[in-house]
Amino acid sequence: MTSRCILITGAGSGIGAGIALELATAGHHLVVTDLSLPAAEAVAAQIQAAGGSAEALALDVTSDASVAAALDALSRPVDVLVNNAGLQHVAPLEEFPIDRWDLLIQVMLVGVARLTRALLPGMRERGFGRIVNIGSIHSLVGSRYKSAYVAAKHGLLGFSKVIALETADTDITINTICPTYVKTPLVDKQIADQARANNLPESQVVSEIMLKPMPKGVFIGFDELAGITAFLISPPARNITGHTIDVDGGWTVQ
């Protein structure tokens, strides 16, 4: 596969870091971005220590100024954008602080549009671009106490369909990967939150809420998400655009 410059948001930990570390082994240059620059630098250092190519940048996807500053600091043009930055808040809507609700939408939906909008002109000019959104099982189904997260992740699918149509005249694609639970710090925090919201012990949250709807009953691995991303940016996937790739262990086939 041709080496690409891949920018990943929210790559200082969790899914973003896992995908970055995996894709770096294939010879790609990784632009590791995160709200926390030290976290991004730590992941970039891991990649470099293993012989890979990476740079780290601070990036707040809710800020036009931060996006502009990050793009100005890039060492090379971006071929692939992985929109991964995210956060979670678990609460019934009546108890959900509206500023927190708004922040989730700003990061996971408006932020995706902001960064995609900023990078599209360069992709068009070079005649190539790949955009991969990290959605969720909650792009496809709902769960109690996650109204903002579910709304944002559902919105990604509609956004992707529209951008697929708007970029159909050039070699740019946009797709959304929708995994069930991946064992990350974000999910670890959700276990405690879900235990409180559902009045369950934490051990039962994993078995009864997270994994029970999945016939395969296992967490999704970083290698799976990185492998699917690698496929979506490869030549055989050049006509796959505006689609969702469900990585749900059979959840939605029932």
TrEMBL record:
One of its GO terms (molecular function) is 3-hydroxybutyrate dehydrogenase activity. GO terms for biological process: monocarboxylic acid metabolic process. It holds the Pfam family adh_short. PROSITE patterns: ADH_SHORT (PS00061). InterPro entries: 3-OHbutyrate_DH (IPR011294), NAD(P)-bd_dom_sf (IPR036291), Sc_DH/Rdtase_CS (IPR020904), SDR (IPR050259), SDR_fam (IPR002347). Belongs to the short-chain dehydrogenases/reductases (SDR) family. NCBIfam families: PHB_DH, PRK12429.1. This is 3-hydroxybutyrate dehydrogenase. It comes from Luteimonas cucumeris. The lineage of its organism: Bacteria, Pseudomonadati, Pseudomonadota, Gammaproteobacteria, Lysobacterales.
